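*** Backbone structure tokens ***
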Amino acid sequence: MFHISRWKRFTTASNVTRALALSAVLALPSLADAKTITAVMHADLRTPGMMTTAYIVRDFGYMIYDTLLAEDSSFKIQPQMAEYKISDDKLTYTFTLRDGLKWHDGAPVTAEDCVASLKRWGKVDGMGQKLMDFTAGIEATDDKTITLKLKEPYGLVLESIGKPSSLVPFMMPKRLAEAPTDKPVPELIGSGPFRFVPAEFQPGVKAVFEKNKDYVPRKEPPSWTSGGKVVKVDRVEWITMADAQTAVNALQSGDIDFMEAPSFDILPVLEGNPDLKIETLNKLGYQTLGRMNFLLPPFDNVKVRRAAFMALNQKDVLDALVGNPKYYKVCGAVFICDTPLASDVGSQSLVKGDGMAEAKKLLAESGYDGTPIAIMAPGDVVTLKAQPIVAAQLLREAGFKVDVQATDWGTVVSRRTSQKPVKEGGWNMFFTNWVAADVINPVVNVSVGGKGTKGGWFGWSEDAKVEGLRDAFARASTPDEQKKIAVDIQKEVYDQVIYIPLGQWFGPSAWRKSLSGVLDGPATPIFWNIDKSE
């Protein structure tokens, strides 16, 4: 439990108000003998029941929900809630729920629940949408059996249902899965290894989870998001500390146990503390990126988008975001460097930083009328502070008028859903990070999608060519075919400026050595398997 006297000692005058609010929350009663992990996550949790690509919501999902399938450290899809069989003609997939699955309210998990959950996920996730395009039907044939029938063979069925990150196909009760996807689910009930404690939830300040004593883990050892999810502590508390130095002080003193995303400039201090362990849990890293709003001026004009694209470069962004080249890579590959689909096609100005003169020329030719670019700039997430500031500076140099709007990440997550004009709460540009697993191919990478307002990702790019190429990739039967199609997609992404990859980076986490069993993977941190010595 966090000691309030120490909390006050760590704060500065500018943080007193937040400190007092947190102190009140942290003083809530908890079990005196409970083994508790206290963690500062990369962002605060505000709308946990919302279907969104925000990773803090994904992390919440892994605490309380479970999945039918999961990916292991060999990139293989393994059974999780269900075993599976595939028909000889590759058109029918049968999933059978394992024994012992219960929702947190005590009701048994049924196939109907899972069908409704898959359909909910298939409406909003890019990979899920593509799977549903190839699906003829999905139904519960009995209480424990889910049958998915395809229109034609599709090679990414298991990879879609077992995807580890972004909008994960988490299972929930049918009555909740059938709720509107544009609103938070009315109850936060899953069947996963932890239970959420609503009575102790303070949005943006504190979230509490307790061990689900009814959860029956698989017998296999844990590997990434697959295998046995054995909970070895009683409680996990996520505490928001917007001031990075305060969190670092708390970690070093032992008042918190885990810090997901310490700033890069403080890493040397943490590395010198013998009581701490520093490790990059997501070995594949992240891609940071910029996304424009295709619905509003001036980025509804492709010539203006191209001018902005030429103005930006990866090194300036990565130097400001990370600083230490040990933890970043200039990478022009839309589908991540050092992977089978990596290509540098179309990325010269991004990786060489030589596009400013061309940006000024293109902007002058575009008919740009001086409309200000409203850039959302969250100041509360260390891995998202630098991008909007650097981009604004480069865009101004190219001749754009820029309005940097200071906000927090929770507001960005909610506001980026708006398609209204800027003066009514809309936006022109925001920045985010994807883990590599979420951009590694054209089907999982929602940023390359071209569905527009009919199911497209925020920004709503509409591009029939790229959608056709994504379908072709899904049908491709050889790695050579897939690589050729991926290169064609990258050409279209850069030509139409569907989004702007701004480099690859790797973020270490830090925790006290009193914790053991911390797992790595593409969707970290996850809190099962972790034990804590007193």
